[in-house]
C-alpha cells in the first residue's frame, strides 16, 4: 500500500512540475477569450490536484500505526504549498490576460494550515505542571477517546498541540503512545510534579 501511495505521489509531483512550467512560460494567444479558456483549464487541473492531494494525505494517515509517516507528510505538505502557489499563479495570469469580470468568476480559496484540526477549542501543553490537568482532560475527551482517529492522526494532533518546552520532546520515531507518555512525564524534567501524572 505504501509503495502504491508513493507512486501516486510521484505522479502528482510530475503534474505539478509540468503545470508550473506552463505557468512560468505562458505565452498568451491572440485573444483574451482563448487565454481565458486555456488558463481556466489549467486552473481546473490545479484544483483537481488539490483534491487528489487531500485524498492522498487521508490514505497515508490510514496506514497502520507502526508506519513512520513524518518524512512522507513533510513532502505532502510541501507539495500542497506548491499547488497553492500554482493556483495563485494561474489566477494572476487570468487577471493579466483576460477580461476582469471573467477572472472574478474563479473561486478563491483560503490557504489552510498543514494540519487539519477540528473546529473545537483544543488545549495546548507547554510543559507547565499547572496546565497539565486541564490539558489532559480536554485532550483525552476531544482527541484521545475519539474512535474515528487512528494513532497516527492522534499523534499528529498531539504534536500540533505541544508548545514551548513540550515541543522539544518530539522525535522521528514517535507514536501516539510514546509521545503521549513523554509529553506528560518528561516535558520539563526539572519539575518533579510532571513525573507523577499519567494518562
From TrEMBL:
Keyword Coiled coil: yes
Top-level taxon in the UniProt lineage: Eukaryota
Key words of the record: Coiled coil
Residue stretches in coiled coil: 39-89
InterPro entries for the chain: DUF1759
Cited Pfam families: DUF1759
Name assigned to this protein: Uncharacterized protein
Amino acid at each position: 500500500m505504501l509503495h502504491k501511495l508513493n507512486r501516486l505521489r510521484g505522479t502528482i509531483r510530475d503534474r505539478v512540475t509540468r503545470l508550473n512550467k506552463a505557468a512560468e512560460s505562458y505565452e498568451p494567444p491572440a485573444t483574451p477569450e482563448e487565454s481565458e479558456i486555456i488558463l481556466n483549464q489549467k486552473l481546473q487541473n490545479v484544483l483537481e490536484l488539490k483534491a487528489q492531494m487531500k485524498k492522498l494525505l487521508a490514505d497515508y494517515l490510514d496506514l497502520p500505526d507502526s508506519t513512520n509517516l513524518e518524512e512522507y507528510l513533510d513532502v505532502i505538505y510541501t507539495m500542497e504549498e506548491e499547488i497553492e502557489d500554482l493556483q495563485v499563479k494561474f489566477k494572476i495570469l487570468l487577471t493579466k490576460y483576460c477580461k476582469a469580470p471573467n477572472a472574478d468568476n474563479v473561486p478563491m480559496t483560503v490557504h489552510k494550515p498543514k494540519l487539519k484540526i477540528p473546529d473545537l477549542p483544543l488545549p495546548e501543553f507547554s510543559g507547565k505542571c499547572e496546565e497539565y490537568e486541564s490539558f489532559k482532560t480536554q485532550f483525552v475527551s476531544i482527541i484521545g477517546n475519539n474512535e474515528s482517529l487512528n494513532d497516527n492522526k492522534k499523534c499528529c494532533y498531539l504534536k500540533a498541540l505541544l508548545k514551548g518546552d513540550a515541543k522539544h520532546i518530539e522525535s522521528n520515531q514517535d507514536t501516539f503512545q510514546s509521545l503521549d507518555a513523554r509529553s506528560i512525564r518528561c516535558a520539563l524534567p526539572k519539575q518533579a510534579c510532571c513525573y507523577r501524572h499519567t494518562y
